């Protein structure tokens, strides 16, 4: 379990949209049982660091991380995933075997039907 947040602690704030500024360190100004407040009065879950507005179905403008390095790892992971996703065509390339596709699905945690055919 992650260590408890404390007033004065710094978190790395990464805006979802560049129009909301550059990533930077922000300071926690208040910590309650469930929520913590960071600069600019944004409230986040004190355990998951998820903005409160997200929990209420609103649009998330920022993500928060305990370290800049944690954010960099997530940013790289997301960029690689988007590249992979954007380069997958509707039909498999002729030079990739069915077995290779099954191994890729297993690696990604995708459960395939026994006969490989889905009506979805």
UniProtKB/TrEMBL annotation:
<protein>
    <recommendedName>
        <fullName>ASCH domain-containing protein</fullName>
    </recommendedName>
</protein>
<dbReference type="Pfam" id="PF24203">
    <property type="entry name" value="Phage_ProQ_C_like"/>
</dbReference>
<dbReference type="InterPro" id="IPR056982">
    <property type="entry name" value="Phage_ProQ_C-like"/>
</dbReference>
